[in-house]
Amino acid sequence: MILVLLGPPGSGKGTQGALLKSKLGFEHISTGDMLRAEVAKKSHLGLKAEEYMKQGLLVPDDLIIAMIKNILSQAPHKNYVFDGFPRNVNQAEAFETMLNTMGLQVDKVFYFDLDDDVIIKRLSGRRVCPKCGATYNIYYQKPKNDTLCDNDNTPLIQRDDDKEEVIANRLRVYKEQTFPLIEYYKSKGKLFVVSANGTQEEVFEKLKSML
Ligand code: AMP
Question: How far is CA 71 from CA 67, 110, 130, 179, in A?
């Protein structure tokens, strides 16, 4: 089964992708996480991608599509949840062609619906642990010890692209490039709308009931 999580930055795609992995055994493919790992490694791809990511812009489609092709061609018959991909209609079309040649298709697309004011608070308040990857929010989900990770006491950091000047760009890019995917998948009868308000558990329950 192939699922796609679609929605604005900060709508909880990463969290729900991780739950689909830990509770239901899906392979969780987050292009954002993969790119951040490449940036940390200072690989050729990472150095190229960093320029775009710093500004809140999309990394060029050909780099992303090659990354996805590489994963799928190695293990085409797993259950996948894609988080952050596809990000525009061009990527969605390339994805469809790629899947067709493997006899596969996108089964369901979950669109996480969330108001702009909540998105901004979720992004600007997000803090992450650089060691274990745990995510917190200074407004909604504070760590027990103010600025330290609950799991390992590591000082939490703010992602560069969660800084206010970059958030505005990411939201603009989302509206211009990613939002049209809602219509794209709706017209194919694959779109399921999930209200992204509520706790992680509540959203996950809704998601499961639609699976
Ligand atoms: P995310 O963690 O999904 O919010 O992604 C962080 C950043 O990685 C985005 O702002 C983009 O610069 C880049 N990125 C992630 N996924 C994609 C994608 N499918 N296409 C292009 N750029 C991407």
Answer: 7, 21, 25, 25
Give a yes or no: residue 71 inside a domain.
Answer: yes
Is 130 inside any structural domain? no
For Cα atoms 70, 169, 131, give the angle at the middle one, nearest 5 degrees.
55
64 in contact with ligand 1, CB cutoff 6 A: yes
CB neighbours of residue 174 within 10 Å: 19
Residues of the chain with pLDDT under 50: none
CA 150, CA 73: separation in Å to the nearest integer?
Answer: 38
Per-residue pLDDT at 99? 97
Count of domains observed in the chain: 1
Let me know if residue 153 belongs to a domain.
no
Identified catalytic residue from 36, 122, 127, 170? 170
Query: pTM of the predicted model, to two decimals?
Result: 0.90
Look up the CATH number of the domain holding residue 87: 3.40.50.300
CB 24 within 8 A of CB 6: no
Cα(100) to ligand 1 centroid in Å equals 24
pLDDT at 47: 96
- Choosing from 51, 53, 67 the residue with most ligand 1 atoms within 8 A of its CB, the one to mutate for a pocket test is 53
State the residue range of the domain holding 74.
2-114+172-210
Whole-number pLDDT of residue 207: 96
Å from CA of 84 to ligand 1 middle:
6
Evaluate whether residue 158 is within a structural domain. Answer: no
| 139-189 per-position pLDDT tens digit | 988 999 989 999 999 999 998 889 988 998 999 999 999 999 999 999 999
pLDDT for 129 equals 95
